[in-house]
Write a structure and sequence with these properties.
This protein is of the alpha+beta class. The chain has two domains: about 45-160, Rieske Iron-sulfur Protein, CATH 2.102.10.10; about 170-440, Naphthalene 1,2-dioxygenase Alpha Subunit, Chain A, domain 1, CATH 3.90.380. It has 13 helices and 22 strands.
Length: about 450
């Protein structure tokens, strides 16, 4: 179905067929839909902006994006975390053009307007030329609502949106496992890695929500080489994926791949850190984490993580857990910008931090082994959706029909869990949430 003059809610609703678990390929290619996504999703819901460890001191800032809007994440001089629109209220110039730094405020490079770190207009080019006819407070930098959970800073332009804690809901139980399993929490390792693949922004969040079958198909050789340090990993991972839970909880969808009984617990973890996990996590969270060899998840719309143990040579390089988080920034219907960070426990030793960073860079970055595999697959999907005939077809998630009505009855966590990473339910749920925002149901 192609509609040239815009999209009505009833038409968008038909693009994602919940009953049959299919979706139109137009959702990946139509530029009008893309513009509506910026208005109805990225301007309305909570978006991940950065981590508190990136701005530890008053005046620290980093520049980010909310949809297609440039913003500044800053800790102001009073210590409050703010998200400011990075656009001068005089002539729209970017008031901050650095990626990161520390400043008492921001000066527009065009006419010299000065804004404090809390967004307040401090001075114009020549205040007296306004003759007292302008309310300068109306020219402060616009600010998004800000919320923080487990060190993760989110923001939204929607001042009527529910509070962040309410928005995250049951997802917080899973965020606690990944981001709050030690007393000091996680810290970011370095600046974000950024690259721009040629695919629609939704393909990444769906994959991380998560696509179990592709792990041994797309990544098979590198799985053999890295996840257990030798050949034969593929068969073991395949069995683990088939038998491990997929979870949906509020805006969160993801998988928790559990190692088989013959595999040691806490692979890639330092023993002293495990003791901190035991003290910090609830028993059910601790038990889910102890055998986890891959946690991959997405918080709708565009915040994802991937975690797992890696060694490129077990003889000289002991297993270490990398932990990557990322946002999938929408650029156009056919292009995304990925912002990718690596995190680790604040309490980890410097040696472990360095090994974890090295493992992450070699696996999940633009030049990393896993991301190169995925980028090629996503580029191919985009090309396979763009033709006049191919765009009339659907993408298929009908494995979900076999799983969505038989969740795990005794699941220990909140939300709903399904008995396989191959279930496709959690992947498809991303599109169900997309439909709800795009039709105004959310």
């Amino acid at each position: 179905m192609r509609i040239e003059q815009g999209w009505q809610p009833s038409e968008i609703e038909r693009l994602v067929d919940i009953e049959n678990a299919t979706a139109s390929r137009l959702i990946f290619t139509d530029e009008t839909l893309f513009r509506l996504e910026l208005q109805r999703i990225f301007a309305r819901t909570w978006l991940y902006i950065g981590h508190e460890s990136e701005i530890p001191k008053n005046g620290d800032y980093v520049t980010r994006k909310m949809g297609n809007d440039p913003v500044i994440l800053v800790r102001d001089q009073a210590g409050r975390v703010r998200v400011l629109l990075n656009s001068c209220t005089h002539r729209a110039t970017l008031v901050c053009r650095a990626d990161a730094g520390n400043a008492r405020g921001f000066t527009c490079p065009y006419h010299g307007w000065v804004f404090a770190s809390d967004g307040a207009l401090v001075a114009t080019a020549e205040d007296e030329t306004y003759g007292g006819k302008v309310n300068f407070r109306s020219l402060d930098l616009p600010q998004a609502r800000v919320g923080s959970y487990a060190g993760l800073v989110f923001a939204t332009w929607n001042h009527d949106a529910p509070p962040l804690d309410e928005h995250l809901g049951d997802a917080r139980w899973y965020l606690d496992i990944m981001f709050g399993h030690t007393p000091k929490g996680m810290t970011v390792l370095g600046l974000p890695h950024r690259w721009s693949p040629t695919n629609n922004w939704k393909l990444g969040p769906m994959n991380f929500a998560a696509d179990g079958p592709h792990a041994v198909k797309v990544h098979g050789p590198i799985v053999d080489a890295t996840l257990v340090g030798g050949n034969g990993a593929r068969a073991m991972i395949h069995k683990a994926l088939l038998e491990s839970p997929s979870v949906t909880a509020g805006p969160y969808n993801g998988i928790w791949t559990q190692g088989p009984a013959e595999m040691p617990e806490w692979m890639g973890h330092e023993p002293e850190l495990v003791e901190l996990y035991r003290k910090t996590l609830k028993p059910a969270q601790f038990n889910l984490f102890r055998r986890c060899i891959a946690s991959v998840g997405t918080v709708f719309p565009n915040f994802s993580w991937v975690y797992g143990p890696v060694s490129f040579d077990m003889r000289t390089d002991p297993l270490v857990n990398f932990f990557a988080i990322r946002v999938w920034q929408p650029v156009s219907a056919g292009r995304t910008e990925i912002w990718n960070w690596f995190l680790i426990e604040e309490e980890a030793s410097e040696e472990v931090k360095q090994r974890a960073m090295r493992a992450g860079v070699r696996t999940f970055t633009a030049g990393g082994t896993f991301d190169q595999d995925d980028a090629e697959a996503w580029h191919s999907i985009q090309r396979g959706c763009e033709g006049e005939i191919s765009c009339t077809q659907d993408v298929n998630f009908q494995v979900a029909l076999n799983y969505r009505d038989r969740p795990i009855a005794d699941w220990a966590g909140p939300g709903v869990a399904y008995p396989s990473n191959y279930c496709e339910v959690t992947e498809f749920n991303n599109l169900v949430q997309w439909r709800a925002y795009m039709t105004g149901a959310r």
